[in-house]
Every structure is written in structure tokens, then in C-alpha cells.
């Protein structure tokens, strides 16, 4: 069946010939489309020879109804009013229709079926198909591509933009010969999927791009005279080649490499898939030289394709990729490993061996975080030995890399070192130590790391080394050891990991000293034969707060100091003494036990702190001596820095002693007043204002009299003392006295008068809120906020 045709000869009115099947609307539009403007510099009346040299315009134009008009416009003779006769022969392709045999429009260029004259009788001669011109043969196009190497990738990137973004600017190809433009178009049409190639509109020659052509060929002199070249994307092949620059579009780079390799058949072979990976895989398999990104994309595509790729093609691809891969490229390395994992079981080990070696080498040399796993039989002995020799320095360097996460790449390298037989025993202690510390720092995160799980399950020597380090850390921090065992499936026993074993057992309830013994017994351990386990058990029973004084004394007595010395529990026992509650009466005896049992082991600081604790406990006993403030201050200075609990215990003990009873301790109180020590005075004021002291003031007139005497003494000794005593007089004593019965108030006055007659008078005045020589100078600075006077 003949194609629907149109003929137009200019100058001349209307169409010279048209097939009946061409719709009227197309005929009318075509009359305005067909035209020809010769290149700049063409003589007004060219000679026949000059006419022969004028360019032909070969175009594919989209019509409003979605149909296409494929046209051939050629100057055919000199003469006529315009000095030139031009004939246009066109073929109309209705919407959705294609050329015979699905020929691509551009390959109709130069076909002998294009007429250069009006058909006789005004009836188009039948045209069933077009014969491709030899200028567009595969060989000619391959040679042409080689001559345009500097522009090739940029051209395909522009083509990709044209077909994916209809709003993108048209592409202008500047060539000295429109034949070259036709060849550019043929390169593009061959690479594009057929549906896109069929509708990519173009013209091989024009003076000014028009009619919506997506690609337009121009001569250099016409392009130079273009009014607004910025409206177009331009590829000027008439100028010097551009400097090399990267082209981001992978598909564009692939098309360029395929054409330069003379392998355009790959475009047809992969036309079923629009993904660049399919074309990249075909290129790699057939030996086309492509870059690392293309090889990586090809590997990923093959890995995901599954059974869609036949065994023979798969084997050929693996062989070609293994030979071509860049074993130092960080982009390609992960793809090689992923492909190798995907093909396990699909190809025999012997066929997969080159890829295994390539992937392993690339992964090791590119510092890839996740390394391939080697299974038994993956590598033959000869290749394994070659890899061990080739990768030894890289593996050992990676094992000692301080910047690598200890639970990731180093452990995977360790597994590879074992599989290849690379010596690493000298590096194992530091490596496993780093790994164990990382596990302890975040057990839950560690449990999610494949390399660690593989190491613990697949390498006995490394597993034992890691567990040994974990056990040592568990002895120092049993709570963390318990978290490790909760996160990781470790099997431990009392011989290989006694501390981890203790961390895995529940702590018995009830008496905590008995709980230590019960925990050891449950683990099959004895403090006599495994004294170091005692420390772990004790730290499990007392994970945060230390034992009480009584518990610490019983724990020490149960096994003796030698066992505790080996178990390194002295710090725990010292904490029990230093952090004991103020009402813990066993803290002092514990201090004595520690001084007697660990004399050679105590630091000067520890000894001074224990001495302070003993002195604190002597206050209020016959052994207290005198000059309490001086002695307490001396002990405190020697033991600095002090734990807060011990400092508070000492300061409050002195305060309680000064506030105890009604005996005459005026000299000791004088020392406190004259010291002006803020901490001692604050503790004194705090204890004086507490309920037990206030209750004694209410119920014991002698106590109330003694406190008035104390808080009225030594005025002006130090500003801090004045503020403290006056605050206590007004905020503690006065409110109590004002609530007492008159008889008890008179009893207090009597006791004060017995001490000194003027004291009773001062007491009465102070109780009434009057200023006296003792309370004069009292200001709001000496009252608590909100206190009633």
C-alpha cells in the first residue's frame, strides 16, 4: 500500500500533487510549512552548479492533530521570479501510524524514493517504503561517531533532555554539511526507544529554527547571524572541540561509548528496558569500555534482574566485569559485592570465583564499610594464596585503623584475614579490646551490627578473645555486663567468663551480704578459689549506692582482707564508710576495720578521710578531747577533697555536739564563732532549726536558757557569727519562747540570772523585741524572709 504523499513546487500556488487520503486540514497547513530559504551568501540567481551545492532540508514535523509530516525539500533549478525553484516531497503519517517495517523517519533521509519534480498528471507515484541511504549505514555512523567524540556524550545528554522534558529548549546542531546533521539524528534515533525516536521532530537544515522542530541543523554562518541564540541549546561542531568535562547523564555516556565501540546492536537488544542498567550490562558483557559508575549500575541491574538474565549471558557478564572492574573505585566496590551475593547459588563457584576475588579486592582497597563474606569453597587454594599476598598489607592496615568503627569494618577484615590465612595474631589483642569497649558502650546498637554477630558466631578464636575482654570489662562494670548479655546471645561459663556468668544470674533477694554469697554459689564460684569474682558479685548486689556500715563490716569479716584485696573491693568498702548516712553507727567501726586491715593499701587521702570519720564519731564521747573546731578543720583539710556525705556528716556532728545538753562548752562555741567558717556555721544553724532541737527548746527550760546564752555570746566575733546567732535568736528561739507558759519563761530567766544577772534582763528585752547591747545591729539581713518579729 502506498504512503499518502504531498508535492509542492515553489514558486507556485498550492500543492502540485496530493494523495486522496491526506486530510484537507493537513493540505492547508502543509502549504504554509513548505518553504526554503537558501543559506546566507547564496547569489540571487545561482548557476546550476551552485544550485547543486545548496543544502537539502529533510524534516519531521508534528501537526496539530498529532499526525506527522515527513518531508524532503531540495533546490532543483535556477530561474523563476525568486531565482530558485524548490521542490518539496512529503509523506503524511496519521496519528499512531508508522512507516513500513517500522522504519525510523530519519533513516528515510537520502532515499531514492524522494522526488525532485512534480509527478506527471498531478498524481503522486506510489511509494511503499524508503530505501536507506548508505551514508546512514552502521559503518558510516560508527565512523562519524568517532569523528565527533568530543561532542558525543553532550549530544546524547541533550537528546535525553528533549524527550523527557517537552518544555526544554530546542537543540541546534551547527555543522558545515547537513549530511552530518542527518547522521547525528541517526545516532540519536538508534539509541532511543522506538516510540520516542518515531516522534522526535527535526530538520536537517534551516536558516531560523521554527515549526516546533525539537532538533534543527544550521550552517555556521546562519547560526552566527541568529538573533536570539540563547533560546536554544547549541552543539557547535564547526568550531574547535570543547575542553573535556564530565557529563553527569549516565545514559548519555553509555550511548557515546556504545557508538564508539561500534556496537549499536546493543540499543535494539536493550530497547525493552528504559533503565540505563540494562544497556550498561549489555555493554559490559560485550566488552564495551565503560566507566566505573556504568559498571556499578550494570552490576546492580544484573543483581536485581534475577532469572530474566540467562545463564550464558550471566556467566559472560561476570567474566567481563571481573576483568574490567576498577578495584580501587569506591563507587564500583559495593556493587561488586552486592552482585556477588546475589549470584551465589545461581552460578557455580568456579564461574563466580573471578567475581569473588574482584569484589573482595575492591572492598578491601576502597575502605568499604561492609565487606563480602567468604564461604568455604568460594576460592580455590591458588587464588586464595594470591589474594592473601596481594591484600596482606591492606588488611593489616585496616585492622589497625584507629578511625574505623571497631565493630564494623575491622571485624569483617579479621574474618577475611582468617579465611585467606593472613597473619594477624599480633593485632588481635588491641582489636578485640576496642571491640569489647564498643560493645560495652552501647550493647543494643552493637547487637544490630552484622559484623559483630558474624564474628561471635563464626570465628572461635576471635570470639574467645572478644569474650575474654568483655569478661574483664564486666568485672569493672557488672551492670553494663548484664546489658551486654541481654543484647547479645553469648554462652558463658565459670571457667571462660566467670564475671559475665555472674552478670547473667539473678541477684537473690533479702539480706544483701547473704545475696553476695548466694550469687557466687549459684555461679559455682568461691571467693577463696576465685577471689576476683567477689568484687563482681558485690558490685552486682550494690550497683549504685554502697553497702551500709554494718553490711560492709560483715562482708569484710566473711572472707578477710586478703580476699578483698585480690577482689579489688577496697574502693567499695571505702565508699561504704565515706558515704554512710549520718545515723549509721557502724561507719566509725568500719573506718577502724579498714585502717587495721588495709594499712599498706590506703592512700594518704583515704587515711585522712578515715581519720576524719573516726574523729567525728568521737565527738560526744569521753575521747572527744577539746578544740573540736580546730581538730575538725585540720582533719577536713588533710582529707580534701571530701565526699559531700562525709563533709556533711562531720559538720553536722560538730553542730549536734555544740547544741547537745546544757553543759558549759563556751570555749568550743567561741572557737566556732571566731572561725567564721561558712560551712560550719551553716550546718550549726541548720541543726539548730530542725525539729528535734526546737522540740527540746519547748520542753527543756535549761536547754532554752543554754541556747540564749550561746546565741547571745561573742557579739562581734565575726560578721558571719553575728548573722547566724541573731537569726537563731529571732527565728528559732523567740517564736518558741513566746509560746511557753509564763512559769516556764520565769524558769528560763531564773537559770539565766544564776549564770549572770544581766542575762535575764537581756532575755526579757529580746523576748519583747527590744534592742539590747546583744541584739543591737540586728537588721533584716539577720532575719529569715517572712519572719515575724
Automatic annotation (TrEMBL):
Domain GTPase-associated protein 1 middle: 141-238
Matches recorded under InterPro entries: GAP1-like_C (IPR049532), GAP1-M (IPR045401), GAP1-N2 (IPR045402)
Pfam families on file: GAP1-C, GAP1-M, GAP1-N2
Domain of life: Bacteria
Segments for region (Disordered): 1-22
Residue ranges annotated for the GTPase-associated protein 1 N-terminal domain, each copy included: 5-125
Residue ranges of domain GTPase-associated protein 1-like C-terminal in the record: 259-763
Signal peptide: none
Name assigned to this protein: Uncharacterized protein
Species this chain originates from: Streptomyces odorifer
Amino acid at each position: 500500500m502506498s504512503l499518502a504523499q504531498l508535492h509542492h513546487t515553489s514558486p507556485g500556488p498550492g500543492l502540485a500533487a496530493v494523495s486522496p487520503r491526506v486530510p484537507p486540514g493537513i493540505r492547508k497547513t502543509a502549504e504554509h510549512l513548505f518553504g526554503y530559504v537558501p543559506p546566507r551568501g547564496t547569489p540571487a540567481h545561482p548557476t546550476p552548479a551552485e544550485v547543486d551545492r545548496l543544502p537539502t532540508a529533510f524534516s519531521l514535523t508534528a501537526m496539530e492533530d498529532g499526525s506527522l509530516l515527513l518531508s524532503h525539500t531540495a533546490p532543483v533549478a535556477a530561474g523563476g521570479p525568486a531565482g530558485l525553484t524548490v521542490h518539496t516531497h512529503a509523506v503524511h503519517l496519521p496519528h499512531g501510524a508508522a512507516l513500513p517495517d517500522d522504519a525510523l523517519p530519519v533513516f528515510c533521509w537520502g532515499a531514492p524514493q524522494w522526488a525532485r519534480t512534480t509527478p506527471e498528471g498531478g498524481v503522486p507515484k506510489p511509494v511503499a517504503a524508503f530505501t536507506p541511504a548508505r551514508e546512514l549505514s552502521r559503518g558510516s555512523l560508527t565512523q562519524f561517531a568517532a569523528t565527533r567524540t568530543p561532542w558525543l556524550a553532550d549530544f546524547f545528554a541533550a537528546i535525553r533532555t528533549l524527550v523527557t522534558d517537552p518544555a526544554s529548549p530546542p537543540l541546534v546542531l551547527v555543522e558545515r554539511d547537513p549530511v552530518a546533521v542527518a547522521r547525528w539524528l541517526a545516532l540519536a534515533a538508534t539509541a532511543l526507544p522506538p516510540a520516542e525516536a518515531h516522534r522526535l521532530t527535526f530538520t536537517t537544515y534551516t536558516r531560523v529554527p521554527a515549526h516546533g522542530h525539537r532538533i534543527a541543523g544550521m550552517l555556521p554562518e546562519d547560526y552566527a547571524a541568529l538573533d536570539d541564540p540563547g533560546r536554544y541549546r547549541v552543539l557547535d561542531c564547526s568550531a574547535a572541540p570543547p575542553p573535556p568535562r564530565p557529563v553527569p547523564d549516565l545514559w548519555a555516556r553509555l550511548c557515546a561509548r556504545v557508538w564508539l565501540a561500534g556496537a549499536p546492536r546493543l540499543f535494539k537488544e536493550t530497547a525493552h528496558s528504559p533503565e540505563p542498567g540494562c544497556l550498561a550490562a549489555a555493554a559490559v558483557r560485550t566488552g564495551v569500555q565503560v566507566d566505573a559508575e556504568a559498571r556499578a549500575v550494570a552490576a546492580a541491574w544484573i543483581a536485581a534482574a534475577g532469572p530474566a538474565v540467562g545463564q550464558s549471558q550471566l556467566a559472560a557478564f561476570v567474566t567481563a566485569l571481573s576483568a574490567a572492574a576498577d578495584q580501587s573505585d569506591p563507587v564500583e566496590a559495593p556493587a561488586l559485592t552486592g552482585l556477588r551475593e546475589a549470584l551465589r547459588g545461581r552460578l557455580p563457584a568456579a564461574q563466580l570465583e573471578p567475581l569473588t576475588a574482584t569484589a573482595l579486592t575492591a572492598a578491601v582497597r576502597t575502605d568499604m564499610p561492609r565487606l563480602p563474606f567468604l564461604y568455604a569453597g568460594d576460592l580455590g587454594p591458588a587464588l586464595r594464596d594470591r589474594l592473601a599476598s596481594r591484600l596482606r598489607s591492606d588488611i593489616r592496615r585496616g585492622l589497625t585503623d584507629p578511625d574505623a568503627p571497631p565493630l564494623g569494618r575491622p571485624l569483617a577484615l579479621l574474618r577475611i584475614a582468617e579465611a585467606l590465612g593472613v597473619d594477624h595474631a599480633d593485632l588481635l589483642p588491641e582489636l578485640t579490646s576496642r571491640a569489647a569497649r564498643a560493645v560495652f558502650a552501647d550493647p543494643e546498637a552493637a547487637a544490630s551490627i552484622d559484623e559483630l554477630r558474624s564474628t561471635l558466631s563464626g570465628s572461635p578464636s576471635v570470639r574467645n578473645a572478644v569474650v575474654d575482654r568483655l569478661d574483664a570489662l564486666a568485672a569493672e562494670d557488672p551492670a553494663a555486663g548484664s546489658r551486654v548479655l541481654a543484647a547479645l546471645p553469648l554462652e558463658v561459663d565459670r571457667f571462660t567468663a566467670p564475671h559475665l556468668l555472674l552478670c547473667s544470674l539473678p541477684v537473690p533477694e533479702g539480706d544483701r551480704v547473704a545475696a553476695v554469697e548466694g550469687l557466687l554459689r549459684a555461679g559455682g564460684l568461691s571467693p577463696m578459689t576465685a577471689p576476683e569474682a567477689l568484687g563482681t558479685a558485690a558490685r552486682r548486689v550494690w550497683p549504685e549506692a554502697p553497702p551500709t556500715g554494718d553490711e560492709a563490716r560483715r562482708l569484710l569479716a566473711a572472707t578477710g582482707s586478703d580476699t578483698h584485696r585480690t577482689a579489688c573491693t577496697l574502693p567499695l568498702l571505702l565508699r561504704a564508710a565515706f558515704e554512710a548516712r549520718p545515723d549509721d553507727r557502724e561507719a566509725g567501726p568500719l573506718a577502724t576495720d579498714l585502717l587495721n586491715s588495709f594499712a599498706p593499701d590506703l592512700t594518704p587521702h583515704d587515711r585522712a578521710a578515715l581519720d576524719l570519720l573516726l574523729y567525728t564519731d568521737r565527738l560526744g564521747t569521753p575521747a572527744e578531747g577539746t578544740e573540736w573546731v580546730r581538730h575538725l578543720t585540720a582533719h577536713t583539710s588533710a582529707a580534701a577533697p571530701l565526699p559531700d556525705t562525709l563533709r556533711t556528716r562531720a559538720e553536722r556532728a560538730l553542730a549536734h555536739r555544740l547544741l547537745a545538753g546544757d553543759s558549759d562548752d563556751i570555749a568550743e562555741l567561741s572557737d566556732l564563732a571566731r572561725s567564721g567558717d561558712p560551712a560550719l556555721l551553716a550546718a550549726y544553724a541548720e541543726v539548730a532549726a530542725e525539729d528535734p532541737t526546737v522540740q527540746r527548746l519547748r520542753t527543756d527550760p535549761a536547754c532554752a536558757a543554754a541556747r540564749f546564752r550561746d546565741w547571745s555570746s561573742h557579739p562581734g566575733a565575726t560578721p558571719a557569727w553575728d548573722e547566724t546567732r541573731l537569726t537563731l535568736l529571732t527565728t528559732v528561739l523567740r517564736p518558741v519562747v513566746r509560746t511557753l507558759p509564763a512559769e516556764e519563761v520565769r524558769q528560763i530567766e531564773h537559770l539565766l540570772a544564776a549564770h549572770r544577772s544581766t542575762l535575764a534582763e537581756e532575755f526579757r528585752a529580746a523576748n519583747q523585741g527590744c534592742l539590747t547591747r546583744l541584739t543591737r545591729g540586728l537588721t533584716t539581713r539577720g532575719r529569715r524572709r517572712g519572719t515575724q518579729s
